[in-house]
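User: Once you have settled down, look closely at the record that follows, taking as long as you need, and be ready to discuss the fold:
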Amino acid sequence: MLSILKAAAAAVVTLTASSSAFYMPGVKPQTFQRNEEVILKVNALTSIHTQIPKDYYRLPFCRPIGGPKMASENLGEFLTGNKIQSSPYVLNMLLEKYCQIVCQETLNKFSARNLKMHIRYGYHHNWIIDNLPSANAGTGSFQKHYAGGFPMGFLDKETGNAYIYNHANIMIDYHQVEPGVEGYRVVAFSVEPLSVKHSYAGGYQWDGESPEGYQKHLQSCPAGGVHMSRPSIVQSQKVSDDEVIIYTYDVFWKPSEVRWASRWDVYLSEDHMVPAQVHWYSITNSILVVVFLSCLVASVLIRNLRRDIAGYNARSQLTEEEKEEEMDETGWKLIHADVFRPPLHFPMAFCVFCGTGIQIAVASFAVIFFSAIGFLNPARRGSLIIGILVFYMLCGIFAGYVSSRLYKSFRGRQWQTCTLLTATAFPGFCFGTFLFFNIILFFFHSSGSVPFIDVLILMSMWCCVSIPLVFFGAYFGYKRDTISFPTVTSTIARAIPEPPPLLNPKVSMISAGMVPFAAAYVELFFIMTSLWMDQYYYVFGFTFIVYLILIVTCCQVCILLCYYQLCAENHRWWWYSFSCAGSTAFYLFAYSVIWFKQLEASKMVITYLLYFGYMMLISFAVYLLCGTFGALSCLWFIRKIFSTIKVD
């Protein structure tokens, strides 16, 4: 539910759905000389069907000499399950390789069963060259795809046998820096996985140490310097007990006109899969919703309010005898002595929720904005999650300020408790959920399990940065004057009459979220796909617009519904307005339940726990965000209308 930063530098992102991307300062391009080693790294194995990333070397794959070495990783990579390590594949710039043996593995009963299980669950390899993830060059009728890596193997639907892709055609596109000058840069990287039952001629066996001359003994490989291709395969490599698997690879080098600064374009703009028109349809849909609501608010509220205010003020000029002759007064003016009464239930929780909602809202705004302008992007693995954490912590000062201002206006006395809950309630809930799933992933031997030292880093960031900032903001909030209200609150609360069926608060609180959700649901599909199906999401410019539209829609819906509740003489609008906008989260969670079938999830309980657990967390955050804007917009609206009338 964020990654970091044209030519002299570094990371890549697109502002809209156009096919052009650009680099911003941060990373120097790597230039290779002829025959210079080009390092291939392996990342964790992933599957959208289980949502449990696995360490590459937990399966019987070839290991580099001396064992795999961890590549430098940031906190965001650990938190997102990335585990990048060295590999035994040796590549050299512009040096073609043919059926190169990597290693030979003999499967035992346990390793064969383990390999079958991961193939059945649809696990994919994720290789990296010069920070470019491997694209899938195609298996069978499958076309090239730039996200999600390439599969480990396949299942025969008729026999149920598992086959492993033990040969990789590694295809690398390069761009010469300057014509006539020695220097090349990697601009594309894809892998075509093949399953080949290798065999030796004449009883020859590779000893694993002296590869010279072995190619001519592999009778399953094409002769005469020809690359391996699918039509040349006689038999696929089956996965079974005591099976000997020989891992091989070919290397292709192809010149390209694509410049290094634009090499991520094809990854981030697969126009044949997600046309830009779809995103424009999403924006158009959202704008139409906002225009419709704006017209409704303008026609209903402004017209009615002008009439109400004019009538109330004209009546205030009458004498007592004239007022008695007039009909009984009705409408929202009657509740002027109760409308600013603090919430009847859980006023402290209301302040905590509003403070947390503001923190989430400002942090989300910053993250989406910096992603849209290119500072957070898929070229920097883990930078998105780091951006979320950093901005959320820094926005703690807004949470403390808003919650303290509201709590002071409610004349609350337990300000320390209110501030402490603002600093710990929602982050504590998130951290507890994260720890619960982290422990489960640890027992599943998943690379998604965050190391203990990184858990300590998260706790330190929370305790040493976020919490102090919340108290710092609360200090300034309590130092400010109390929020002034235009009317005086009476001692005894006014009775609320029975509302008509259409104005029943419970009905409107449940149904109100449908409108903001309708303004954002199209773009939500792409966000969900990126979040759960290992796809790249790059159109943060569209997301930024949809985010603003969502907020505006929540405010408009809440103001309109709150006005009708006030006309029905219902002065308990605090939680009502919060829940009306917050009910958008209910529709988000309901949509996630429907969308879940897209994953074709395995029957493992942990998959359901991870998906619905984190979607519940995201939905709760949306409830706080939307609810806060709904409540604060209604507070502004009610103060505005009651300040325009003369109260007797």
In short: Residues 1-25, 322-328 have pLDDT under 50 and may be disordered. The chain has two domains: 24-268, 330-642.
